[in-house]
Design goal:
heterodimer; A: 174 residues; mainly beta; Jelly Rolls; four-stranded antiparallel beta sheet; globular; B: 162 residues; 0% helix
Chain lengths: 174, 162
């Protein structure tokens, strides 16, 4: 049987509300990491954001650039020297259509290499709203050359609700 | 019976000095190909060339954001698969999904470009077309046809449908 190279490393499905989800002790035996998320928030808005914190680092070591459609408009924004988080994932929260969750992907290539870490993100939010819904793309730089051994997914202003799912995969390039 | 692997690394290369990366003799036994590229190219645009075709048989449509402005553009009769702009010091990521690469239709490629440099950055989605119905058997990864920087890594994956 072929050697698996896209390997499910960890899965978290929430049974209650939770503000963060952490994958720790991530093995260094892969080349890239992928986090796939299907989530909803409890903050009092229709669209919220989540972020990635790396190795527990809360210093001002992150920057990001985003491109996103929000309803009928297309926008781009960015920030440098941010603390606590990297990149950006859009998802829906408590005032949006019920029973609806959003999808977010964070792709972290070369996560053990001695280089600064680039993170690519994609977000898909559709809530049957006349004013919102997001198709988002992001790039983020983590300014450390240390290998990534833990990832924390952080709700920016509230909690992830029960049923939110977080999957971590490792990809080998050989 | 357990399924076989459906996402397989076919080849990987890290440049020890400035150069291009070639994947040749690509098997036709997969459904799609994916290239994950991480590195720098002195700010030039990452690009692909299929089967050594340097003719004007490529075209693309792209949308991007640089942190303040958004834009969309397109080019017909290009001579390369257009990726996205690299950085100069910090690594950028560019992924290329090459659909039905062994099929008998023209080939479509989706590019996700991600670059951030603390003080600047850009994000892009690019769709390319290669107007050729031949199976893709070789790919040259470059910076707009020229060299990428030392340390740049490209990995080729094969993806099998059921």
């Amino acid at each position: 049987m072929p050697t698996p190279t896209y390997v499910a490393l960890a899965k978290t499905v929430l049974t209650g509300t939770q503000a963060t989800v952490t994958f720790s002790s991530i093995a260094s035996t892969y080349t890239d990491l992928v986090v796939l998320i299907n989530a909803r928030g409890d903050d009092a808005t229709d669209i919220s954001t989540m972020y990635v914190r790396i190795n527990g680092d809360t210093g001002a070591n992150y920057s990001y650039t985003r491109l996103f459609s929000f309803g009928t408009a297309v926008n781009s924004d960015r920030a440098g020297n941010q603390s606590n988080f990297a990149s950006a994932g859009f998802y829906n929260a408590s005032t949006s259509t019920s029973n609806t969750f959003s999808n977010v992907e964070f792709y972290l290539p070369s996560y053990t290499a001695s280089i600064k870490k680039i993170i690519s993100s994609s977000s898909a939010v559709e809530i049957n709203s006349t004013s919102s819904g997001v198709n988002g793309a992001g790039a983020s730089l983590y300014g450390s050359t240390t290998a990534i051994s833990s990832l924390t997914i952080v709700n920016n202003s509230g909690n992830f609700v029960s049923g939110s799912r977080f999957d971590l995969y490792g990809i080998k390039n050989s | 019976m357990p399924a076989g692997a459906t996402y397989e690394p076919l080849a990987t290369s890290t440049l020890g000095s400035a150069g291009t990366i070639t994947f040749s003799s690509i098997s036709g036994s997969y459904t799609d190909l994916r290239i994950v590229l991480v590195g720098t190219a002195s700010g030039n645009t990452f690009a692909l060339r299929f089967n050594g075709d340097s003719g004007t048989n490529y075209s693309y449509t792209q949308m991007n954001g640089n942190g303040s402005a958004v834009a969309s553009s397109r080019v017909s009769n290009n001579s390369l698969i257009y990726g996205w702009t690299s950085g100069t010091t910090n690594p950028a990521m560019c992924s290329f999904d090459i659909f039905s690469y062994a099929g008998a239709t023209n080939k479509t490629v989706l590019v996700v470009g991600s670059r951030d440099n603390v003080a600047s950055g850009s994000v892009a989605r690019v769709v390319n077309l290669w107007r050729n119905t031949a199976a893709i058997t070789s790919i040259v990864v470059s910076a707009n046809g020229g060299n990428m920087d030392s340390g740049t890594t490209a990995t080729l994956y094969g993806i099998k449908a059921a």
